[in-house]
# Entry
Amino acid sequence: MIRVEKLRKVYKVGGEKVVALDNVSVEIEKGEFCCIVGTSGSGKSTLLNMLAGLEKPTKGKVKINGQLVNKMTEKELAVFRQNNIGFIFQSYNLMPTMTAVENVAFPLMFKGVPQKIREKRARKILAEMGLGSRMNHKPREMSGGQQQRVGIARAFVSKPKVIFADEPTGNLDSATTEQVMKMLLDISQKNDITFVMVTHDPELAKMARRVITLKDGRVINDTRDGVSLLEEDEKIAESFEEETAGEQPEKQAEDEQPVQVPGEQEVSNGHSQAISQ
Ligand SMILES: Nc1ncnc2c1ncn2[C@@H]1O[C@H](COP(=O)(O)OP(=O)(O)O)[C@@H](O)[C@H]1O
Ligand SMILES: [Mg+2]
# Structure
């Protein structure tokens, strides 16, 4: 479902090179629930952003469903994300002026779903997530855990093939974290969705079948059901064939700024939000 070959990302900060990711090769299966773990600064968010096409790698390949994400133009990426990908954010990124139902129904607008059907589907999924009595509440009228459940419902409502989540429980207390994590595992499995989640919490990652551990931008451990996949990852790296035609030399690519998401919109908390999802 997701295949990463020899991924490398170098940032340049004031003349200094920061190697955020180096030689990362992994394959995530369809329907797999995968946690990316590691301490702060180990490259987790960089990897997730590159999987989702939010940033371009310096070198290497990202394939989702056989499509080369790192070669897509911004327009192609926007359409690809709309049809295939959902996001869940640590800071929820809900629209503050919209109710829970409106927030969840919102991504369906871009798919041309009529309003009545959009809201019906939003109500159904919110009810399934135990938010039946919060349908018409605005984000500030809900607890953090409730807001994140709205954020989760919004990511799942269009039944994407893949969902990416960066520290989705990072702002929640431990009891709520466990509830939300169980919900994510359950709803992903029921809908056969490939789920890739970043967390700095190794205990939380233990709840997932697949755990990829990063350190200093490298994969130092990769397990499925506790069995190491590092040998397989090595084979993926060996299969990598560099495409020289049209490829930018590393020096130029390193200067690249993070790619902006089309349709991205500033919301009042200062975080940007991919409204098209
Ligand atoms: N936009 C950027 N510009 C420069 N350096 C960056 C940028 N984003 C991340 N880094 C650096 O890359 C490394 C990995 O960062 P990140 O992927 O955010 O780690 P994590 O999510 O595991 O905490 C860190 O050293 C960080 O400082
Ligand atoms: Mg991070």
